[in-house]
Amino acid sequence: MSGPGPNSGSSSRRDFLRASALGGAALLLRVPILLPEEAHDAGRGFAPNKWITIDGNGAVTLVASRAEMGQGVRTALAMILAEELEADWKTVTVVTPSPGERYPGMRTGGSGSVSGYWMPLRKAGAAAREMLVAAAAESWGVPAAECRARAGAVVHARSGRTLGYGALATKAAAAGRPVPKEPALKPESEFRLLGTRVPRIDGPGIVTGRAVYGLDARPLNGAALVAVIARCPVPGGRVRSFDGSHASAIPGVRRVVPISTGVAVVADDTWSALRGRDALRVDWDEGENRAGSSEAYWARLREAAAGGRVTRSDGDPARALSGSAKRLEATYDYEFQAHAPVEPMNCFADVRPGRCTIRVGTQAPNQAQAAAAKLLGIPPESVTVEVPLLGGGFGRRLDHDYVPEAVELSRAIAAPVQVVWTRQDEFENDRFQPASTNALSAGLDAEGRLVAWRHKNTSFHLTQFGPFAPDDPDTYDGNPWGVFDNPYRVPNLSSEYAEAKAPVPTGSWRSVAYPSTVFARECFLDEAAQAAGKDPVAWRLALLEGGGVLRVGEYEIQRERLAAVVRLAAEKSGWGRPLATGRGAKRRAGRGVAANVYHGRTHVAQVAEVSVGDAGDVRVHRIVCAVDCGQVVNLAGVEGQVESGIVWGLSAALKTEIGFRDGRVQAKSFRDYPVLRFDETPAIEVHVVRSTEAPGGMGEPPVPPVAPAVANAIFAATGRRVRRLPVRAADLV
Amino acid sequence: MPTYVLTVNGSRRSVEAADPEMPLLWVLRDRLGLTGTKYGCGVGVCGACTVHVDGKAMRSCQVPVSSLPGHAVTTIEGLSKDGAHPCQQAWLEEDVAQCGYCQPGMIMTCAAKFDALQGVQGRPARATRESVEAAVSEHVCRCGTYARIRRALDRLWGTA
């Protein structure tokens, strides 16, 4: 596995060393970036479409037009192209383009990159392959059908002749050669790259420190300035007045400039800017949130829970509930959460007359470009956006609030500048995952069958997607995720959603609404199983029995695929057999199961093994995950995303929450928001179902089942239901 | 402005700093262009900025520039030539990194323990494995690559 691999755009062989004059000094920047004009430059070789270029030496450059934030998208998208192209993976270089008319769809979220680009990239690769085969056949004067592409070359087996892609590039690019519109795709049985474990192409750059992230993409030593911004500690507050005289007196501080988001301290280096900000005196108008608190926000949520609408109704849930032999009710609460990527937000902007260059790690490059253009009153094509690697995204960088402030500042000081957020800025100005509450009712008939199910989720609205609009039908369309698309077969079922106006900025957080709703649904399902005297795995399988396709809104949910991963996770975890964990110690041990279908695409089941001490301390020892995400692109990537999603989910299940007091975010550092660490990480086992269904996406789907699997295991160990997250020791003793 | 002469990755570098408390992190990143050392929290909690000072893992955000003359600083860029250090190799073999931002710090912590292990042959391996696990547990990886870090440590230290 450590042999020669493909080249990251930032590794040595084909570095895009770019020089540009900034602030009078030359900048050499190693960023995996393809400028739009380079993409158009077919003169360098064979470039049948905007995704593929092959030069005369056979070097293959592939474009991955999504943001790389650790999900492995640059590797995965390139693998799809390389598979159909029959490229030699060792010769492949992957570049990230700049957004614009040519690359309009770079927005990276919703686990949609692989699923969205699956067919377009396969066709692009296959079309290029057919053109290379045609060029070789012409050279040899043989029928194309007798030729075969294989690992960067075309082979004519009968005569034993071979021509490499480099030798064929010019001929394949010949004017007049048509680009096949419907090329023949490879059958899955002939995949040689897809479905295997391929190491991340960015790995070598990362372990040597050469990989370039947004924060690294600033020229040095006076060629560009750095700024930190004093923002109101209460979300929504404004500057009333400020005194920048002490800040300006700090050596290295150049300017103190008021901008829309606060007061910017501009300096020669980050440390001077930070010291300058410490010396700044600002009188804040803290606005309507100044008395805001977790208690007040939760009261607002509980109040909103009285309203809302039904978004899906099967059968007659109200009647079935009132007529059921046994009824259960419970409320499940989920707290505010932060994203906390280890690389804080940052944005470099260089505004010149009539144009602008931005370097920023963002999941929304096109939106960043549009926002900068709008602010400056120039066309989007006059804004060049370069997207280096992202030091974590998780949905935080799907918003682009960190872009306009840098553009505004560069324009104000007429100089290139990088705005840097500190860790505390990051916590105080996050687009939080909102708190939400779930009210559930279930009814069993006399035989213990689940005949009625009501699930109402009440959440704060996501400010990232627009203002509070409770009368807008779009608010309810397909929502709430995890409730609306409940995959289980219950004859009388209702999905309800109520929204409260968010008191603080809110946005997408890895798997968005699912963690709260699936926590509630899967735990309450266990409560119903207990009431019916059924085993939680058998109970779920019974509710999925008969398979079939559930059509709700845009989703088509294949119940049998979910049942299959539930069975697989149960089998691999040793469900029903005695637990090893907890034996010999004074700890109570238990197993729990949970499952979910992510947007009808990716099917995940997890079994958690936990133990609980006398003080209510929870240890998660092992999580077994079974996943059916359709066709696997990079098996190592799928496994990595499961491991990652489980650790992510465990932090919110066991440890972290964002609280508010006096309008202020209580967390200032990782001390106050203690995300999971190495020594707290359970053994994680991943079992991937082989499938030729369309790929379903993997970044978010592993997250939602984590918390309910753990909570259900805690119940198995202690007999205590966990109905609010994060798990509190006091609830377990 | 006061000038400090530092030894960084084997080279002597002169750095001007008005503030003697300027952390090594910002000297490396903003003055010397060594951006492999990452800023994650600035208060010594996350470990992303970890470098070696005289072979020991230190959080560069907590080390003032004025304390450094006479000491040798090694950053991720200087850990090896072209990623040849056993820790870097183990990281590649286990395909550890996801976003990768915290990984230079993780690797520097791991490398300090590994290099010390080479110098104290005969000490029980178990103790050094526990020691590196405790040290790695002082780092934050928000992508949650811990399972693969464990496998990389298995390669370096032998299975736990």
Keywords:
heterodimer; A: 7-stranded mixed sheet; 6-stranded mixed sheet; globular; B: about 160 residues; alpha+beta; 5-stranded mixed sheet; 5 strands; about 15% strand
Indicate the topology.
The complex is a heterodimer of chains A (733) and B (160).
Chain A: E1 7-8, E2 17-22, E3 25-30, E4 33-34, H1 36-40, E5 45-49, E6 52-55, E7 60-63, H2 73-85, E8 92-97, H3 113-140, E9 147-150, E10 153-156, E11 161-164, H4 165-172, H5 203-207, E12 225-230, E13 238-243, H6 245-248, E14 253-259, E15 262-267, H7 270-279, E16 281-285, H8 294-304, E17 309-314, H9 317-322, E18 326-334, E19 346-352, E20 355-359, H10 365-376, E21 383-386, H11 404-413, E22 417-420, H12 423-428, E23 436-444, E24 450-460, E25 492-500, H13 514-532, H14 536-544, E26 549-552, E27 555-558, H15 559-573, E28 588-598, E29 602-612, E30 618-628, H16 635-655, E31 660-661, E32 664-665, E33 683-688, H17 706-718, E34 724-725
Parallel strand pairs in A: 1-8, 4-8, 7-8, 12-22, 18-34, 20-21, 24-25, 30-33
Antiparallel strand pairs in A: 2-3, 5-6, 6-7, 9-10, 10-11, 12-15, 13-16, 14-15, 17-25, 18-23, 19-20, 19-22, 23-24, 26-27, 28-29, 29-30, 31-32
Helix pairs in contact in A: 2-3, 3-4, 10-11, 13-17, 14-15, 16-17
Chain B: E1 3-8, E2 11-16, H1 24-31, E3 50-53, E4 56-59, E5 72-74, H2 86-93, H3 103-119, H4 125-136, H5 146-157
Parallel strand pairs in B: 1-5
Antiparallel strand pairs in B: 1-2, 3-4, 3-5
Helix pairs in contact in B: 2-3, 2-5, 3-4
